[in-house]
Structure formats: C-alpha cells, structure tokens
Amino acid sequence: MILTTTSTIEGRQVRTYLGIVTGEVIVGANIFSDIFASVRDIVGGRSGAYENALRDARHQALSELQAEAQDIGADAVIAIDLDYEVLGKTGSMLMVSASGTAVKLG
User: Fold this and answer.
1) How many domains does the chain contain in total?
2) Which residue has the higher pLDDT, 5 or 27?
3) What is the CATH number of the domain that holds 72?
4) CA torsion angle 30 44 91 100 (round to 10)
C-alpha cells in the first residue's frame, strides 16, 4: 500500500475516494527515561530514549492508519498529516495521530 503526504501519486490516478482514515497512539514516558533525558538536556546531546519512543509511536500510528485503509479496500492513503501533542498534567504523555484520505487507484 502506498502511504504519502502528497495529494497525488505520480503516474497514478485516483479512481475513488474512500474517506478519511486515522491512526492514533498515546504513549507514556517511562520515569527512568525522563531522568536520563533530563540529564542529557542539562549536559547537551540527544535523547535516544525519547527519539525511540517518538519513532515507535509514529510507526504505530501509521500502521493503524494503513490497517484501517486496508479494511475498506484502499490501494493508497494520500495527503497524510502527522500531528504530535503532549498530554497530561505533567506533560508525561505523547499523542501521535496520523490522518489521510484512503483511495482506490486507477
């Protein structure tokens, strides 16, 4: 299945628009990751723990979006938008949402 942030797919025509599909993931940050990330923020450098959590959440959201599109018989999802939001009183939760338009290609 083709997943793209563009509204067209080069060399292919959209035959039918099947509707909007979504995938959402909410993950909590582990307290140990928070502590190590805070130390890295103080001394500089990248936070591998957060980068991995963000990458995994994005992959899960896109996987859910793709599964929803497959369930309705789509060949592709176009115009995908990824959104990130910090949730919770202390900002300890991360939400990643992916949405796009499921289509049948000609």
Assistant:
1) 1
2) 5
3) 3.30.110.70
4) -90
